[in-house]
Design goal:
19% of the residues lie in helices and 21% in strands. With 262 residues, the chain is α+β, with helices and mostly antiparallel strands. Helix 2 crosses helix 3. The longest helix is centred in the first third of the chain and has 15 residues.
C-alpha cells in the first residue's frame, strides 16, 4: 500500500482535505495537532520549520528538557493489545529506540487512559494516511466532535497536562535526539503499520494522542516520533472508521520494563 503520487503532492492534498474536515485552530498548541501539520511543513516549509524547531530546545541530553527525568521510561520492549469492536490490534512498543515516548504510551495504557476513547480522525483519501485517536476528552460521548483532537492527558497528581519531548533516534546513533526534528534517517520510520505520537507544531507538545500509519509515510520521518508498530491485526486498523472507540488497551508483555520515577 504505497503512495502513488509524488510525496509533496500527496502531503498537500491530505492537508487540504483535513482543513475542510476541521483541523485544530491556531490557538491549539497542545498534543492535539494531527501529524499533517508536519506534512504541510515538509511539503512547503521544510527548511524554515526545521531551523525554528532546532533552535527552540538545546541539544540531546535528557537534562536539556525540563521535567524529562520525571517521565516514565520503557527500558526494552513491551506488547500492547488494543481492542476495537471486539477485535485485537497487537502493537510492539519499542522502548529501546524511543524510551520516553514508549514509556509514556505504556504508562497511559496501564492507567486505563485509552479505554473508551474515540478515533477522531481517519484519513484514507486521497491516499491512505492515518487513523488517529487518544484524546481523553473523547471519553465523554457528549463532547463536541469538532473539538476532538485538542486534548491531552491531565496528570492527576499535578493537575497539568503531561507532555513529552519529541524523541527521534537517528540510524547509527547511540541515543535519541530530543526536542527537535532531524534530517537523518531515523531508526523507527513511518512504514505501513507504524505507531507514532501526534503533536502540535511545537516539538515538545505530544501527550496522549497517537496514530497508525495506513501507508509508508516517509515524508513524516524525522518530524514525528514513531514508537512502535502493529504486528498483528492491521486488518482491524484498516476497518476503523471515524467515531469508532477503543474497547480496551492492555499491556500483555513487558510491563516490567516500564520505569516510573517516584
Amino acid at each position: 500500500m504505497r503512495l502513488k503520487f509524488p510525496q509533496f503532492l500527496v502531503a498537500l492534498l491530505i492537508v487540504g482535505a483535513l482543513m475542510l474536515g476541521g483541523c485544530s485552530t491556531p490557538k491549539d498548541t497542545s498534543s492535539a495537532s494531527s501529524p499533517t501539520s508536519t506534512a504541510t511543513s515538509t511539503a512547503t516549509q521544510t527548511s524554515s520549520t526545521t531551523t525554528t524547531e532546532a533552535t527552540t530546545v538545546s541539544e540531546t541530553t535528557s537534562e536539556s528538557i525540563p521535567g524529562m527525568k520525571d517521565l516514565p521510561r520503557l527500558e526494552g520492549k513491551a506488547t500492547v493489545v488494543v481492542t476495537v469492536k471486539g477485535s485485537p490490534i497487537t502493537i510492539e512498543v519499542d522502548g529501546t529506540n524511543a524510551p520516553i515516548t514508549a514509556g509514556n504510551f505504556v504508562d497511559l495504557v496501564q492507567k486505563g487512559v485509552y479505554d473508551g476513547l474515540v478515533f477522531h480522525r481517519v484519513v484514507r483519501e486521497p491516499q491512505p494516511f492515518v487513523v488517529q485517536g487518544g484524546d481523553p476528552q473523547g471519553k465523554d460521548p457528549k463532547f463536541p466532535a469538532n473539538r476532538l483532537g485538542t486534548g491531552g492527558y491531565i496528570d492527576s497528581k499535578t493537575g497539568n497536562e503531561r507532555t513529552i519531548p519529541l524523541e527521534i533516534k537517528p540510524t547509527g546513533a547511540k541515543e535519541p535526539v530530543y526536542g527537535k526534528t532531524i534530517t537523518e534517517t531515523p531508526v523507527l520510520t513511518h512504514k505501513l503499520g507504524a505507531v507514532a505520537m501526534a503533536r502540535s507544531q511545537q516539538p515538545n507538545s505530544a501527550s496522549s494522542q497517537f496514530y497508525f500509519a495506513l501507508a509508508d509515510l516517509g515524508f513524516l520521518d524525522g518530524n514525528y516520533a514513531v514508537f512502535g508498530k502493529v504486528t498483528q491485526g492491521f486488518d482491524v486498523v484498516n476497518k476503523i472508521q471515524q467515531g469508532d472507540r477503543i474497547d480496551s488497551a492492555k499491556v500483555t508483555q513487558g510491563a516490567e520494563n516500564l520505569k516510573v520515577p517516584g
